[in-house]
Model the fold of this input.
Amino acid sequence: MLLSIIVATKGRTIEIADLLESIRFQNPELIEIIIVDQNVSDALSVVIKNYNGDFQINHIKTEARGASNARNVGILHSQGQYLCFPDDDCKFMDNTIDIALEKVEQHDVVFGKCVDEYGEDSVIAFAKGEHKLTLQFHENMFVEATMFTKRQIMLDYKYDETLGVGTFHGAEEAYDLVLRLLNDGKDLVYSDKIIFYHPNKILNHSSESEVRRVFSYRCGFAKLCFKHKFYKKYLSRVLFVLVGLPFFLLTNRKKCRYYFAELLGLISGAVIR
Done:
């Protein structure tokens, strides 16, 4: 087996079908799909059944909490020489896998970029071209959903299961992994030729879900900063929010609630580690 595609999922069925459809004609004999299913129901079983004849699918039901935990479960069950970890609402482009596998043969880890339905950068504003990641030079060059890596790398490092969606510290598991790899001298590369579709989140900084999300994400950010001694980075964000809060208190009460939740997340994530 050449490539294991590990998908941690909860609460999505249509998106999983779209993801599987995007892989359907990409050298299926060389690919295994590992779906780590954190749903209580068996709704995904019907979706997966439609693709069982197209490629090897290992459907693992787990009660493990958190995306990082689920991905680690997938790593232990993988058989591929290389691994990748698309989000459960991602899709592969026609040549994503071919380009990525050619790159990852030469490096320990490669990252690509995400685009929306219009072909514009999604999730973050990505760097242009191809670059080697370093401890000083890595911003806008990695999103976990675009990562391809050698299996042994992930067996050695794994995800920090206290970080990421589904935990109190609900983000930054990829950043933590990147920092640990770079600190150990691993070879990480970004290429904007490796492209995934990923929907853009429409942000208005006022919905209940966004308020909850920013609290959780900033808890993760705070834990990451203290774990890796990014004290300046942490204090800069706290200062930014503190300066912005009075402005939004006067001009936009809904956004004020969002940034107050962010401040609470920054404090809570630093206190509860």
